[in-house]
Design brief:
Blueprint (H helix, E strand, L loop, with lengths): L2 H12 L4 H17 L6 H24 L5 H4 L2
């Protein structure tokens, strides 16, 4: 399976739940992923992961809200 296929399979399970619940699920999945790394590499894995999240967030925001981005950006 490719990343997009896995993400599409997970989305319905998160949809409709509060942001706090969605965040808890994602945190649990991240912890499972990190637990598989040697302890001495976990901080590096977290940094790598968060950099990917930062990069993907901009693209996902444009997909969700269009070229202008999140409505809160328009209020700045």
């Amino acid at each position: 399976m490719k990343v997009a296929e896995i993400v599409d399979a997970i989305k319905p399970h998160l949809s409709g739940h509060p942001a706090e619940m969605q965040g808890a699920v994602i945190a649990d999945l991240l912890a499972i992923w990190l637990a598989g790394h040697p302890p001495q590499l976990r901080e590096e894995a977290i940094e790598f992961h968060m950099e990917m999240v930062r990069q993907l967030t901009e693209a996902e925001e444009r997909l969700m809200f269009g070229a202008e981005g999140h409505p809160a950006r328009r209020q700045e």
